[in-house]
Protein 1
Amino acid sequence: MFAGFEVKLTYGDDLVNIDRSVMAALARTVWECGGPVIRVEDGEVRHGIDRVIFPAEVLAEQPCFGENVLLRLPLCDAYHAHVSAAVHKTLVQSGVKASYLLSTGRKEHVKLCFAPYPERPGLSFWRRLFTREPTVAELLRGYEFTVIAHDPDLAYDRPFWHSFIPGP
């Protein structure tokens, strides 16, 4: 089965940041469609959804990870299991015991929300209160998280997108 569409770019000389805006628009289109982009001229291919490797600390740097990165499959148990297994593998490899919630969120995208600090059941109340413990993000530094997701680097692949943009 083949599904796709052709994009032909035309624009006037008066547009200022055409490179950046065109690359972002094309990358967003690829993400929304979930398929590859193929340059007809030379057959070069880029995938908007791929097996992507992230530095593991990005999982816990923000309150939640995944918006516009993890796939929008709110009712897909198989994808939830895939993301959960990838997170579990990362946590096991790093030795971090951390609480997290995997949910679809309000915008129907999968996201991971981590507690800011790892579970430390052996610490007394006073020690937890007065000792600065490393955050989950700090403990995950140096490890990798691999998951099928939207490739965030696609929008910044200038050599690939630049060929779509006609020269002056």
Protein 2
Amino acid sequence: MRYRPMDDHQKRRLTEKMDILRAVQTFQEQGMDEAEMLSELLNLFYVDLDEYHEITRAA
């Protein structure tokens, strides 16, 4: 399943650890692997990659 933002200019920032964790869990429930998940997150949000990598390494 491919998620798409309505307009690239409407991307939200995904910088809070809990918000990133919630997004990761949602995509994992959809059965996405890590590469696909990161691609989708970057399509939808401006992601703090340091926080993202910290979360996925801990999981």
Protein 3
Amino acid sequence: MNTSHEQSRRERGQEHSQGRLVREQGLITSCALDVIQTVAQQRGRPLQPRDRMALKLLTPRNAALMVKGDKRHLGCRQVSFEILTDDPGLGSYRLVPVGVHVLNPETQWWSDEYGIGRFLWNLYLGEEPVDGMHRILERLFKLPGQDLGPAQTHMEVLGQEHDIQASVRPDLDLYIRRHKGSIETSLRRLHRSGGLCRASELGLDTQGQGRLALVFGKSRRYAVSFAVERA
């Protein structure tokens, strides 16, 4: 009995010194909220809404939480990209995100400014940026795989990586690797996908900025509104 107890104590001590990978949604979410709240307190102003949203959407599939002693290390990878459209007769446009909207049954649409004009999404662990962009497009635009091929949609990751590392507080470190990319498609193709709507038809409050919106999610609960600018 004493031998077993001693072995268990040694194992706990080894785990304490080497760290352990945590894949519990509750702990990952708690760390993300700690980051959001602490940064707001330290800076006197909150993170950009798109960064808050990205942190809130972290899951064991797209984030790694390492606990070592009393210190937590939260890391993830993200891809930000812009969408360019080109249609015969319509010309070339850039879709600039201006709002994130979540459908709440009680309050209806909740809206927040999205930050600078690029889409920002979390990559799955081990997922390449181009693969992640394909997955995101499929969910956003309901486009089947064959419509995302090079002949239809030009996708490019620009080879730029931006590492963000911060000691948020003594017991929490944050690591983010962000990739940049671009997507070329057409407004007609997005319209055929069924995920493209007029913001006014959805009752979204975009303060006059967003004309169109992409609606997605299992129950079509999320939307990104965007302005349409001449490219």
Protein 4
Amino acid sequence: MQKQRILVSVVGFSDVERHALNTVFRLSQERELSYAPWVPLAAPGTVIPAGVAQVALVDGESLEAVLSHAKEMPPGQRLIWVGPDAPEHAWRVLDRPIEWAAVLHDLDLVFAARQVDSGLLDFDVTAPSPLDLDLDMDMTSVEPAETVRRALVVGAEDEEGTYLRSRLALAGVGLVDEVIGTESALELMERNRYVCGVFNLDDHRIDVWSLMRDFIQRNPKAMTLATTELAGPLAGWWRRRRVRRDAHRVGITALLQRPFQPRQVSEWLDLI
């Protein structure tokens, strides 16, 4: 299949949200359908991108958002609005906190809508669709609460959590519970079922080993990933061997290196 790319014009958003969005763009390059920011200004000597972005992603709480209310959308462009007071011509409206799986889902629908416009496909993508669901499931026969794919992330640092949320969204996991406490993790495991769990073995504030055992017992079909600096080449042969031995005795799916190696993470999360 030939790779396709959707250009997205981004208006507003906080630094943290833009970081997460850039992560989604970067990780999407691994897919057949990818996304990239549309930049109308180019450096001297370079070619300015032709045409317009296929998507305008607008922060409804930004000062620039007023222009999106007033100006007419270019032909074929879809407006995804985040926040209150969306204009009537908004194609999709999302609330905060932003669920990046929902953004990814809507961007995928933009490509489908363009296929419809071109006559290559014949189905309705104009009506809002359920978000954060496994798109391979039969929506008509399963209740939404049962189709949500959920992941548990324990002990991740801020940037790691942002990366994992974005990467899990690309894998079709719509909800991610992030915790840094043992009791909080146990409470979540009692209430929810998960398709994936990611545990930071280097966070010594929590009882990670016991949590992993409990997670595997409650979610035997889930992918269980443990992350640690001891899995990296700088840890030394004996320490690497010991942590791998202990982790696999618990029954985890894989042991991943910290800092994350994107190719290694993708290798496992793409299997969910």
